[in-house]
Amino acid sequence: MKRNASAEWTGSLKEGRGTMSADSGVLKDTQYSFSTRFEDGIGTNPEELIAAAHAGCYSMALSAELGKAGFDPQSVRTSATVTLEMLDGGPTITNVHLVAVANVPGADDEAFQEVANGAKEGCPISRVLDTEITLDATLEN
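Above: the chain's sequence. Below: its structure in token form.
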């Protein structure tokens, strides 16, 4: 399985602008710029898209792992915060922090935490990122 997206940038780094699109159509000429990435401009940025991808991937991975452990998850809500820092080598993603809340009838917290941490390690987006990934997982019954 392959997924495709594209980006086009015109102009200099600080004054230029770009657009991103995905073959699915969910992104179509979506604007990004220096100010949307490094300041508070309106539009998206690569780090925000990584956060969305990681949150979605982790929610699915946790649901799958809970099912394998014999639980029937009713819902999994995940947010992801990507930290971008200016280091000597340039802008670097230094951490992704996941916060997950799951409604899993019949699960106890100890079993849930074990499955939640395993899902963090096994999520394909977690595996592609070469950075620290932290997790706060809460069981909601």
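The chain has two domains: 5-38, 46-140.
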